[in-house]
């Protein structure tokens, strides 16, 4: 007996004008990017002015939307049915460019130039742990502030852990507001000659040690960067907190995306619990790449038994045909027990004709046996996926879910995205 979960209704979610942000999140490799794009296409063709922000570096999203490339600037997607009054733009986060925009926007030209040219900043903006996730939050805040779109769909970073997207802004903010940074900023803030002298002694001792660990050049770059960024540190934390509150607002909906695999659903369950702990609005779970069968009433066990029976039948027929071939060649006479000349059979066919018929029959049966074995393998996959899903539903029976059938290949155009959007909208209940 399978467990039933509530049905995730996608169209009412997309049609609700109060829904301003949809965040697709989950572990890597479960189809978040494709899901986000399909939601964007469906929302636009139902009248929403939508933009899809993807952090996934894969180029297939641009190709499926008919765009030559995606960058940090929203680009309109051609081929969208605009009869309902909607439109669709898409963009891919450029982490460094977004960081540069933040620096330019929140500092004067001279300070901005000093920061942008600093080697430590260039390393930080290109690859510091958590920078990608933090900049995704920054870009989300920018898009929401522009108010040019009434629906923003976010494809979260392909992080190792689904929690990175929520934790990274706090981690980066903690780093920029941390004791080490404040200590490096201290010379610019201390007042009085005695204080400066005392601090210089302490800083000399500290920087001497750090120079040995980090290298004098790197330490100097860090101190220059910190001095230039002094007035911006508070802004990072303020904006991160503002975007975090935006994600908690009623106009935001989180969609956890998973595949019917143990690790993906385990991480999805963890993320569902974390969203609840953070009071963030969970709309439901999209289960991608679900396998099914048009002949589900034929179990794997019955299919295997039928395949074995057919293979045994073919093997027995082959033995009988070999014996008959000897007789047909004038080698054995079953009736008299001696050699006989070749002669036509009473049914009007000679031995060669009967051999051809037997080969054709055996080939058909072998093909049928092979198909039965393939069906048995598919039903075993279906059963394994149901057991995996069963465990999730038993722990989180309140989470609405919708299945998306596994496709034979990658989605490469708008029609493919429309097909996925249609499956999402049909809202087939997940029976685990």
From TrEMBL:
Domain of life: Bacteria
UniProt protein name: Arsenical pump-driving ATPase
UniProt-listed InterPro entries: ArsA/GET3_ATPase-like, ATPase_ArsA/GET3, P-loop_NTPase
Stretch list, region Disordered: 332-363
Annotated ArsA/GET3 Anion-transporting ATPase-like domain residues: 19-291
Parts forming coiled coils: none
Organism (species): Actinacidiphila cocklensis
Compositional bias per record (Basic and acidic residues), positions renumbered to this chain: 335-363
UniProt GO molecular function: ATP binding; ATP hydrolysis activity
